[in-house]
Amino acid sequence: MNSSVLLSAIAFWLVAWGINLWLARTRPATPLFRGLINLTIPVLFGAAILVLWEGITRGLGIPSILLPPPSMIWERITTSTAILWADFQQTYLKAVLAGYVIGCGSGFLVAILIDRSPFLKKGLLPVGNLVAALPIIGVAPIMVMWFGFDWPSKAAVVVVMTFFPMLVNTVAGLSAAGHMERDLMRTYASGYWQELFKLRLPAAMPFIFNALKINSTLALIGAIVAEFFGTPIVGMGFRISTEIGRMNVDMVWAEIFIAALAGSLSYGLIALVERAVTFWHPSYRK
Amino acid sequence: MAATNDTVLPIKERSKALSAAQGAFSDKVLPVASIILAIIIVWYAFAVYLNAPFECDQAARAETTIGFAELLPRTLAQNRPVLPAPHQVAEELWKSTTERRVTSPRNLLFHVWVTFSSTALGFAIGTALGILLAVGIVHSRVLDKSMMPWIITSQTIPILAIAPMIIVVLNAINITGLMPKALISAYLSFFPVAVGMVKGLRSPDRLHLDLMRTYNASGSQIFWKLRWPSSLPFLFASMKVAVAIALVGAIVGELPTGAQAGLGARLLAGSYYGQTIQIWSALIAAAILAAILVMLIDIMARATNRRMGVKA
Fold first, then answer.
1. Nearest Cα to B195, choosing from B232, B225, B235, B157?
2. What are chain B's domains?
3. Residues of B in contact with A220 (CB under 8 A)
4. For A77-277, which CATH class?
5. Is residue A159 very low, low, confident or very high in pLDDT (cuts 50, 70, 90)?
6. Model-level pTM?
7. What is the nearest CA distance from A265 to chain B, expressed in angstroms?
8. ipTM for the predicted complex
């Protein structure tokens, strides 16, 4: 009975793998067809993994405390939307968004300020690079002590985490404009601000968006981990740490699903905006 | 050596070398040193500002007024300051690394060692897996098309959030100690290495690949003589990212185990008992460890570059 579940899951996986092998070998003629195939292969791969997961957990009778099957996680997501929404509001809409905007914004402004002084640039860049590699997440307990249990302390952690990647990337981006273009601006008799807004900021956009993308993941991690150090009784990190203590692993997976969804969607949104803003960049030109 | 150099180098060369040294000083050391000095000054200013309310409170309770000259030294010598002054942190670092036995859990070096060992183990596993997967992806169209989108998507997922779950679940099936933390570090460091290596293994020019084919090179020869050497800069760049994130993974992995050992446990215990100086010294220790790890990889990268004849 159980082995049949397992076997059929393995069979599905093998069939999906076979189809993928065949699809990857075909050389489609039209670009539309090629796009379709490039989309089908990863989707099929993901579906096969899910089916295999379901089959193994059910077929081998793995206790749901260790690894709940996907269907059970999905059921938990649909039945406890209210809790998930409250947690999402607390962690993402309040802490992550506020911290992300303040952290990226201040990193950007400081970068523009220090860009005017080569001395500051030479001093701050190595320090900023070093700080970007440090385990900044460790400031979480300090922030919780300073700003209290509610979301401002999480936002503060996010600010500290997102500030340095933004600073370093923007400073690098501001020197990305070539000498020829700068000389051209000078022959137009443009001032500092004109050159900044019309040449150097647009040229820095790929770097800035790179930082925005890195930071979108960092912000979510920062907010969730900061909640392990103390929260009110709502929030994604709080839910993960308490439900794991009560061995409700399916609820933890539901939170992870929400976090993954939020992370991927915000990343995708930033990527879309990037495509619209840096349409001139070689990687997007047709 | 220096003496012979002095006699061998002509005056002109020597003055050039001297001005180069001066250039490096005013170009690198001076700006960085002044920034660090500025950070320390701002730190002291904030320490005074943030710790002052407590002292004023104490003075008000004792029904005395307190002048600034008295206030200043007191704010920098509290037992549980809101923000400890740099010298307090340095003192705590010194005390907790030298005055106790290295094997005792009260010694900070013990915690650094615990965190370092799981970071190193996880980093080694993660890097090996990442390289293997990258090799597979570069050589197989199916793997490339089916896994690459998922690898990139998984970068956008806050993987660190599931660290406590991995620890607790592995504890439930009796895998305890170093391994669960190392697995989190491995999982985190695996992605940057895989993505970087896919880029690196694909970095050789078409021309070079064609040249290898005209030499009638076999697949493994192309790999070892062309793809692997040209991917090394990418490998080291992504290893730097990976080792930093592996350390973060190990620290976060230490949070849910009930604060037994490691820098993460030290942070958590400090936050439970309001020991701010302990938190800050653990934080500084983590920072120093991260800097040393990144530096080690940098040294490895330079040594490899030199052996491969790349000019810096």
1. B235
2. 2-83 (no CATH), 108-307 (1.10.3720.10)
3. 158, 161
4. mainly alpha
5. very high
6. 0.79
7. 9
8. 0.72
